Amino acid sequence: MRGHVTDGSSGVSRAPLQEACLFTVCPYLEQKGTMSVVKLEEWRQRIRKELDNAVAFWLKYSHDTTHGGFFTCIGRDGKVYDELKYVWLQGRQVWMYCRLYRTMERFRKPEILEAAKAGGAFLRKFARVSSSSGQWKCAFCLTRDGKALKIQRTIFSECFYIMAMDELSRVTGDKDMQLEAEQMMEQLIYWVRVDSSGLGRPQLPGDVPTNSMAVPMMLLCLVEQLTEGRARDVAQKYRELASWCVQQILQHIQRDGTAILESVSLEGAELPGCQGRLQNPGHALEAGWFLLQVSAEQEDEELRRTAINKFVELPYQDGWDKEHGGLFYFLDVDGHCPTQLEWNMKLWWPHCEALIAFLMAYSQTKKPELLERFSEVYEYTLNHFPDPESGEWFGYLTQEGKVALDFKGGPFKGFFHVPRCLYMCERMLDDLLAKKD
Amino acid sequence: MRGHVTDGSSGVSRAPLQEACLFTVCPYLEQKGTMSVVKLEEWRQRIRKELDNAVAFWLKYSHDTTHGGFFTCIGRDGKVYDELKYVWLQGRQVWMYCRLYRTMERFRKPEILEAAKAGGAFLRKFARVSSSSGQWKCAFCLTRDGKALKIQRTIFSECFYIMAMDELSRVTGDKDMQLEAEQMMEQLIYWVRVDSSGLGRPQLPGDVPTNSMAVPMMLLCLVEQLTEGRARDVAQKYRELASWCVQQILQHIQRDGTAILESVSLEGAELPGCQGRLQNPGHALEAGWFLLQVSAEQEDEELRRTAINKFVELPYQDGWDKEHGGLFYFLDVDGHCPTQLEWNMKLWWPHCEALIAFLMAYSQTKKPELLERFSEVYEYTLNHFPDPESGEWFGYLTQEGKVALDFKGGPFKGFFHVPRCLYMCERMLDDLLAKKD
Description:
Glycosyltransferase
C-alpha cells in the first residue's frame, strides 16, 4: 500500500510544505506527494471535455419525442435496444439536466431545459401509482408509453422522483412542483421512520428490520436537495432528520472502526452471515462525500475526520484491487467470497464516487495524499471507462478491466453518475485553481 | 463449427458404421466421429468418482444436526459461511438423497435416508407459510431455526417442495406425504393456469402475462416425478397437463426455428425488447432433455427430432463460447449485450444440463456427432469445475474459465445439479455399456 493518510499531527505538520509544492507551476517538480497546477489544469480540461461529451450523447440519443421521457437502454453506438423506461433513471436525468442548466453557464441552453421539463411531465403523468395501502408509490419501470410494469418494495423510485421535482422547480419556479416534492418526502419519512407497511413487503418473522446504508444516505441527499439555498425555516424543518441520517450512517462503522459494513442492525450492531459482512466500497465512498458536505456546512471538524478516515480512506484501502486496479463492487469483510456473481467486476459508478470523494476530501483538507489517491483513481477511471469510439462511458468491466457489458445506458446506468461526477469534479477543480489565481 | 447433426436420411444411413466403430475396444481406433468403449468406460469411472465425491462432501458438511435441514452456504473447504437455509435447495437435497437411495445400490445407506427424512421434516415444519390470500406459499429463505425471511412471488419454492415430498414418500412409503405433494401440485396448477393472484404480484397495466420457459419446464418435471411408476390413474390425471407443458415449451422455438427464446407471449409470439430477445442456453438444453424423456415414453419420433435439433443442438451452437469454451449464461438473439451483469460467465449448471442432454440424445439416436458434443462439453466441464483440493465443484467461472466465486454452496447452488447430472450420466453410461456386454 502506498502511504496512508495519517491522523492528526504528522499529516497536519507536513501540510504547509506540500501545499507550497502543489501550486508550483513547473511540471518537472512533480514528485510523489506533490501535484502541480499543470496537473490540476490538465484534469480540469479532460473532465470538462468528458462532461460535454456525455451531455451531447444523452441529448442526441435518449429523448423520446413521441411519448415523452427518456430512453434509458442505449447501446454502445447510441441505438436504443429496449424501450422500457426505468423511473430511477428518468428522475436522475431530469435532476442532472436541471442542475447543469441552473449552475453551469455553458449548459444554460433551451434544449436542456425543454428536455428536463418534458422528462418531468412524463414522470408526473406516469410514475406515480396508487398502492394497495392508498399511498402513492412510484413504479420502478414503465413501458415506453408510460404503463407501470414493475413496482419495487423500496423507497428509491420515490427518492429520484423527489430529486427531479425539486430541482426542476428551481429552474421553472413552479411552487406546486416544489410542494409536491416535499409532500412525497413526508411520505418517505413516514415509511422509513414510522411505518413501512405501505411499501408492500410482507412482515415475516425471520426478516428483522435493518439499517441499510442506502436509506439514510438517500434521505440525507434529499435533505441537501430540498434545503440548498432555501429559507431558514425549510432547513429547520429537516434539521433533525439530517442529524438522524448522519447518525444512521455512522452506525455502519464497525469492527472497532476498521470497516464500513453495508447493513447493520437498528441498534447499530453487526448482523449475522453474508448480509452482515457485506461491503460495498463505492457506496461507502459516496457516503463519505455526503458526510463531507455536511461537515463543511456545519464546520464540524470531527465529522470531517471521520468521513475521510472511515468512509473515504478505509473503503479505498479495502476495496482497491491491488492486482488489476479499480474498485471491487462487493467484498466480504472476513474475506469469504461474496455471493453476488458480479462481486469482482469494476463498475463505473464506484469510481465516480471515489473521484468525488477524494477531490472533496483534498479540497477541504489540502492533504496531498488525498490528491495522490484522486490521481490514482483518475488514471484507472479515465483509462478504462470512456469509449473513445462512440463517446460516453462503459459501465461494467471484468476484474481485469476488459469491457464486459458495452451499453451506455441500461436498467441501472443512465445520465447520472458520470455527469454528476464530472460536474462536481470540474467545479472543485475550478475552485482549487481559482484560489491559486 | 464442427459437423452439425443432419436431419433424416444421411445421419441414419451412417449409423450402422458409426455404431460399429463406437464399440471398438482399441483406443487407438478413436478418431473424429468415433468413440471407443474404452472412452465410455473412462467417462463412467470418472463420473462415478465425482458423484461419490459430491455425496461425501454434502454428507460431511451440510447437515444441521441442531436445528434440522441443511446448510446451503458452504465455502470452498466445506465451512458454513452463512446459516440461512434456502428452500429451493432444501427441497432439492431431500429429493436427490432419496433418488440416490432409492435407485442406486451403493447409496442405499441409513445415513442418507436419515438425512433425507430430517430435511423433509424441516421443510414440512417450516417452509410453508400462509399467504395473504389464505393459500399455502413456501418461503424462499429461512433462518437457521426455520423462521421465514423471504417469500418469492413465483412458484419455484413450491415446486421443489413437491419434488422433495413425492420422492421422500417413495422411500418411506408415507402416503400422507404423497398426498400432500399432490395437493400442493393442485395449488400450483391453479396459480399457473387459472389465477396467479395468490402469488402476491400486483396486477400492473404494463406487466403483460408471459410464457416463461421455466414454468412449463418445472410443471413437466413435476408430472414426471408424480407419475413415474405409479398407477395408470395418476398418469391419466396429469396427461393433459403434460401435453400442455410440452406445447408451452415448444412455443419457445422462434425466429423460423432458428432460436430458442426464454420468454414469449401467451400466444407464442416474440416479446419486445431485451426480455423477448433473451436466450439462456443452459435452460434450453435442460428443456431439451425433459422433452427427450417425454419423447421416449411416448415413442414420439417427431418430438425427439425437435428436442434434439431445436433444444439441444441450437442452444449449443449459439451458446458455446468459440473463443474460450464453455456455455454463456445469457445471450441476446440479435447480438446486443445482455443487461445481466453475469451474462458471459460460465456457470456449472448449464454444463450439467448439456452433459445430460447430449448423452441422452446420443443414447436415443446413437448418432456419433452427439457423443462428440458430449465429449467436448465433458472435457470443458471436468477440466474447469471440479475442485481437486477440497472436492465438489466450483459453480461460477469467468468467461475465460477462471474461478470467480469459490464456494461450493450458495443461495442457488446446492446438492442438486452436480449430483443429478453425474447420477443420470452414470446410469446412461451403464446402459450403453451394458448393451455392449
